[in-house]
UniProtKB/TrEMBL annotation:
CDD domains: FMT_core_GART. N(1)-(5-phospho-beta-D-ribosyl)glycinamide binds at residues 12-14. Pathway: Purine metabolism; IMP biosynthesis via de novo pathway; N(2)-formyl-N(1)-(5-phospho-D-ribosyl)glycinamide from N(1)-(5-phospho-D-ribosyl)glycinamide (10-formyl THF route): step 1/1. The gene is purN. (6R)-10-formyltetrahydrofolate binds at residues 64, 89-92, 106. The record marks 144 as: Raises pKa of active site His. It comes from Microbacterium bandirmense. Its EC number is 2.1.2.2. GO terms for molecular function: phosphoribosylglycinamide formyltransferase activity. This is Phosphoribosylglycinamide formyltransferase. It is an enzyme of class 2 (transferase). It comes from the Bacteria. The keyword Ribonucleoprotein does not apply. Keywords: Purine biosynthesis, Transferase. It holds the Pfam family Formyl_trans_N.
Length: 193
């Protein structure tokens, strides 16, 4: 059974989908802990499903590296097989990535390598493209630059706003994330080259 720690910053819609999938007895992975970099609404999902949670508030630390050290200490308590960044709106410090690589994956609301960074949906609209997408990647020390595990195209419709387009991307992100976690757990997908 693959054990997961999920890190969030916001409402945790991907987290909830993962928790619902993992609640099925035949799902080959279990969430053992949920962490956040702030008081996040998504922590309520962990509580609802009886999953332990922790918060490592970014603002409480003098440097990103100090925050990363405490985050790693919290993750080490749970010894997860895989760390899932699910809407964590922080770049992990290089030392954290090096410590757990390649066992960290991330979802991204764009068809990488197109539109990396925190504003993938907004950037796609600004570029007036006809399609964007969703991706699941292995986290490396760059910005959304790691190996791509799964991705799917999504059309940009006339009149789309950042909110409407993001709402159409989210269900695809969730489906891809659940599929990737299952494939990793079943040994069908390798994280390391």
């Amino acid at each position: 059974m693959l054990t997961l720690a999920v890190l969030i910053s916001g409402t945790g819609s991907n987290l909830r989908a993962l928790l619902e999938a993992a609640a099925h007895p035949d799902f080959p992975a279990r969430v053992v802990a949920v962490g956040a970099d702030r008081e996040a609404d998504g922590l309520a999902h962990a509580e609802e499903f009886g999953i332990p949670s922790f918060t490592v508030p970014y603002a409480a630390f003098p440097t990103r590296e100090a925050w990363g050290d405490e985050l790693a200490a919290q993750l080490d308590v749970w010894q997860p097989d895989l760390i899932v960044l699910s809407g964590l709106m922080r770049l992990l410090p290089a030392a954290v990535v090096a410590r757990y690589a390649p066992h960290i994956i991330n979802t991204h609301p764009a068809y990488l390598p197109e539109f990396p960074g925190a504003h993938g949906v907004r950037d796609a609209l600004a570029a007036s493209v006809s399609q964007t997408g969703a991706s699941v990647i292995v986290v490396d020390d760059g910005v959304d630059s790691g190996p791509i595990l799964a991705q799917e195209r999504i059309p940009v419709l006339p009149g789309d706003t950042e909110a409407t387009l993001h709402e159409r991307i989210k269900p695809v992100e969730r489906r891809l994330l659940i599929d990737v976690v299952q494939r990793i757990a079943r040994g069908e997908l390798e994280l390391a080259p």
